[in-house]
Specification:
Number of strands: 0
Helix content: over 70%
Oligomer: single chain
Distance between the termini: 25 Å
Strand content: under 5%
Bound molecules: protoporphyrin IX containing FE
Length: 432
Amino acid sequence: MNLGGLSPDKAPPVEAPLTLFYLMPFFLCLAGLTLAWQGDQVMASRWAPAALATTHFLVLGALAPVMCGALLQMSPVLLGAPYPRVRLVARLTAAGLGLGGVLIGGGFLLSLPGMLLSGGGIAIAGLLVFLVGSFRALSAASGRRETLWAVRLAALALAVTIALGLTLAMVRYGWLQLPQHLRWIDMHVAWGLAGWVGLLLAGVGMEIIPLFYISPAFAAGLKRVLPFAVIVLLLLVVGLPGLPPSLAQALWQWLVSVLFVVHLMYNANALYVQKRRQRPRRDANLWLWQLSHVAVFAAFFAWVFDASDSLLGVLLLGGGVSFVIGSLMKILPFLTWLDLQQRRVAGGHMQVSLPRLRALLPEALANGVAWTLGSAMVATLCGAFAPYLTTLGGILLIACAVLLAYALVRAAIIRRGVIAQFSPLGQPSGGV
Ligand code: HEM
């Protein structure tokens, strides 16, 4: 790995990101169960309660915690911007997303307004803690300007998305009226997927892909322009509910196409730099990252050829999950190793040998996670034509969640074992 320009010594305690990472397998499992149970409805309509529940299990419970956890970890190392009281921020964000995610998903699934709204309040409270921490960390930072702006604007997009989410939840149950309701839902989807998820993954991807695979850097112009282009387009989406419906619909089609094109430029550049990488070995992470880039291209064609919204949703959410799991499997062994190395040096335990990265996450396990996720996506997509296949997709997603949970627990047990060797009494001196 190329560590030039990074400050690993500024990394926060590893427990902070791990607290958030542990949520992912649980919510992948909930999404898999919903797909296995009501997959035919998920593929039949984007408005089906099961479709909205699966979407929010994935965006709030699986993606957001890992994205927030990765930011807590990367901001000080990459941008020189440490979060204040990072353990507390991690715990409160994890509690909000964990409880809120279950209640929002459950509220959609069981059509219980109180459950949905209280879940929205709790998830938003957790995310506000994260956003306040991000504001304090990122407003003073000055390193890597392009990435810093991508992260700042992604955090802004998250704030807009959750505010719109709570508003829509009130509209859904008749507590509030909005003219052109559908346009407001489009706004929530666009700020959530193209802004928060798309912008953060692109901004971070343009840093970590060259880092992990020793590849050429991304085009400087793309790094500079992408975050602002996405935010300008999203601001135009905000104006749509004020326009006559037919004009708003035509502009929405145009804006989504341009948003796709901007994100495709990143994904095409990512495939190109990955092809020119200096580390020739292909591993599960690289497969998952490439799957995510291809999924965005496929989603674009699905949009152009007017395929069903459910198909589009599976491609975009599957692509996001694929990139995030790929990154998690790269970061997990590295963070665990780095934490052990720092403890070893600080305590003068140079006689204790550390496990190798490969031992912290064996290749077969990483491949298992990648294969189950890839096949879950393919089976769920085929469910658009043969609905019973979504059940298979759900079961494969549960298998992926179980393997990912095993990978996380296994790394934690190895870490505890090594920490025990540092302590004179053989007792672990830090939490897992
Ligand atoms: C990271 C944050 C979030 C993202 C990325 C996100 C994403 C989405 C997406 C993609 C949809 C459309 C589903 C479809 O078309 O099938 C949607 C709908 C919706 N979301 Fe969110 N969401 C987020 C947070 C929230 C929160 C915190 C709430 C609060 C309860 C919420 C409430 C809603 C509601 C009520 C709808 C559906 C509107 C309706 O059909 O009446 N979302 N969201």
